[in-house]
Design a protein that fits this description.
Distance between the termini: 69 Å
Number of strands: 2
Radius of gyration: 23 Å
Largest sheet: 2 strands, antiparallel
Strand content: under 5%
Structural class: mainly alpha
Helix content: 55-70%
Shape: flat
Number of helices: 5
Length: 125
Amino acid sequence: MAQDRYQEEPTAHMIDVEQEMFMGCSATELKYAGMISIGAWIIVLLLVFAVLDWYLILAPVIGMFLGLFTAWRVARWIGEQKRGKPHLYYIHRLEVNLFSKLRRSPFVLHEGTWALGRTDQDNGK
């Protein structure tokens, strides 16, 4: 009876994985897609409405709807791209490629081979 209880509880490798929330995307991926698409649409529409001298109050409202639609399409595309990849693959690629250029990267970024021992530069030259 004790064996059945332990098999029902989650194991350690399942606890650290962010679960899929919508169309195969995790909450972090949905958050990034939503923030970027809504922000971009609002900025673009504010500029267009200012140039055309329309009511600026409509730009954020329309931008929210267009941003949500764009986030939905991006979530669908990300879900298709993620099939067969490890968990949070694209979030890690984004952090390594984009955020490491903006701030110090928490990842070990090294291309080439690792060597053990001292080099000629460490000998006081």
